[in-house]
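queue> pop job 88
queue> type: inverse folding (structure -> sequence)
queue> payload:
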């Protein structure tokens, strides 16, 4: 199948920040490459400057999900290009690099530097952060999103994916604004803002106070937002949020997504992406009569 002109063997990718392919290769060796769980790999979000991330604790396990306040620890742009990118380029699937900037200049620096590297096939713009110049979360506001994409679009011909935040009044309006300014695809949902209290206290558990909710708890919200967004844009939609099975992935495709990402589930089972992909392929072949990697092929029943 094709995503923004990039050939993929199937529709399953990882949610940014939920699968550390470099650590997984250290743990599993080259067998990771032989049985890679995803059809496209999305890097952890990088920023211009290195970041330590948020103070601990950074994770809270909710009844049907996770609240994280990891805070985007990363080596920064130069560290990523020097250390991580060569290793990610050895993965047997196309590569998408996720970037986040706190100003338009930072975003432009990231997009230009990443786009200049042949190893990179697509770029995801993680807009779940405030523009420090305006104070508005870029992906929460159509005007902010439009301004950022307008600035970035001329910098590269590589596909630009806008990752939408669910913490917006109207994510579909944000998606439409990104499309108008030339985004090639949108992905959603990122985590929903949430909080947990330390047991028996009135203090927040997470070091950052609040965090992002992910996992099965957010799946119904994600499905509704994916359906809304797919109804408003013509560009491909990448759906995610609580996907644990091929059936869940099939639901996102039915709601209008072109591809589906597996996120939190990979913490429980690092091979979840491969299982979800196999289950999805079986469902599409046997129940819905088409195969995602060969949409025009007759049903193999
Ligand atoms: C521990 C953790 C770290 C994450 N880091 C990032 C990140 O760096 N960039 C990003 O765009 N999304 C990040 N996300 C959000 C996921 O990519 C995904 O959008 C979200 O978790 C919903 O999917 P899921 O319910 O399948 O996990 C992170 C999520 C988790 C749980």
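queue> result:
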């Amino acid at each position: 199948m094709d995503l923004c002109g990039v050939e993929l063997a199937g529709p399953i990718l990882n949610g940014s920040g939920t699968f550390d392919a470099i650590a997984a290769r250290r743990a599993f060796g080259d067998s990771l490459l032989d049985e890679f769980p995803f059809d496209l790999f999305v890097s952890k979000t990088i920023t211009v400057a290195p970041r330590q991330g948020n103070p601990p604790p950074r994770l809270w396990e909710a009844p049907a999900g996770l609240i994280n306040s990891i805070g985007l620890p990363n080596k920064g742009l130069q560290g990523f290009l020097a250390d991580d990118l060569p290793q990610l380029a050895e993965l047997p699937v196309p590569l998408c690099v996720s970037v986040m900037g706190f100003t338009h200049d930072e975003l432009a620096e990231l997009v230009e530097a990443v786009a200049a590297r042949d190893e990179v096939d697509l770029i995801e713009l993680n807009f779940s952060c405030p523009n420090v110049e305006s104070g508005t979360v870029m992906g929460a506001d159509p005007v902010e999103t439009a301004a950022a994409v307008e600035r970035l679009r001329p910098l590269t011909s590589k596909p630009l994916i806008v990752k939408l935040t669910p913490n917006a009044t109207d994510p579909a309006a944000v998606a439409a604004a990104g499309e108008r300014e030339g985004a090639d695809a949108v992905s959603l949902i990122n985590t929903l803002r949430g909080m947990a209290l330390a047991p028996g206290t009135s203090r927040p558990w997470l070091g950052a106070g609040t965090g992002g909710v992910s996992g099965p708890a957010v799946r119904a919200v994600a499905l509704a937002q994916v359906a809304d967004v797919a109804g408003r844009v013509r560009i491909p939609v990448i759906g995610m949020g609580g996907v644990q099975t091929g059936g869940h992935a099939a639901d996102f495709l039915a709601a209008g997504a072109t591809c589906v990402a597996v996120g939190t589930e990979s913490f429980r089972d690092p091979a979840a992406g491969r299982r979800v992909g196999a289950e999805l392929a079986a469902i599409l072949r046997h129940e819905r009569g088409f195969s995602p990697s060969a949409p025009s092929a007759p049903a193999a029943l």
